[in-house]
Amino acid sequence: MSMWRIRLTLPGGPGSQAVLDQTLAGQPVSQVLLTPRGAGTAEMTGEVTLDLKHDDGLGALLSQLHTISPQVFVSRADQPAAPSNQPETAGPRRASRGRPLSLLRARATAQNLR
User: Fold this and answer.
1) What is the pLDDT of residues 78-92, one digit of tens each?
2) Which of the four CATH numbers 3.10.129.10, 3.30.70.260, 3.40.50.10860, 3.40.50.2000 does domain 2-76 have?
3) What pTM was estimated for this model as a whole?
4) Which candidate, 21, 111, 13, 19, places its Cα nearest to that of 68?
């Protein structure tokens, strides 16, 4: 199962929430959060978390959500598991061997003057 987080903007009015409810009917939704966008606007931000057994249904759901909002953002809500044949290990990090910015600027200026 894959968990997905979907975020969209709902236009103002009571009808938009009803359309969202109809769109999500029958979907394995685990959480729906609706928050007002701010003072002076009736828009709301909706965040939906759902579990899909097969990711095939995600495209159809996103198409339906685009009828409500022109911008629909989707991201994984779960982290993919690490491959079982490669254990997770933290290796030592090497120090950066950067040059001071003043030296880089001086070199660039010298090259531009040539």
Assistant:
1) 866 555 555 555 555
2) 3.30.70.260
3) 0.63
4) 19
